[in-house]
Write a structure and sequence with these properties.
This protein is mainly alpha-helical and 91 residues long. Helices cover 58% and strands 0% of the residues. It has one domain (4-82). The protein has helices at 4-9, 11-14, 18-23, 29-51, 62-75.
């Protein structure tokens, strides 16, 4: 069973990949979407921090993970064009 509260705060600490969120049978569609959106926000934040030299570059390629998250959201039926464009790079 997934700790939903932790997953909503730090998805990467609970799930290995964004697709694991989609495959998790104990979560509702809405919970999966919330978790993936949080994960996408976190990845954008990390990417921006690295661009601004606020954090050392890690082995993570945030654009690849973000791409996987967006594909997972589409798999759940979330159309990326349904949301208004983000006001900043972070989303």
């Amino acid at each position: 069973m997934v700790n939903l509260e932790v997953a909503k705060i730090d998805p990467a600490s609970v799930f290995k990949t964004p697709h694991d969120v989609v495959d998790e049978t104990t979560l509702s569609r809405s919970e999966k979407i919330d978790i993936l959106r949080r994960w996408a926000y976190d990845e954008r934040e990390m990417s921006v921090a690295e661009e601004e030299n606020m954090q050392s570059a890690a082995d993570n390629d945030h654009s690849i993970i973000l791409d996987e998250i967006l594909h997972s959201l589409i798999e759940l039926g979330v159309d990326k064009d349904q949301d208004s464009p983000p006001p900043t790079k972070q989303g």
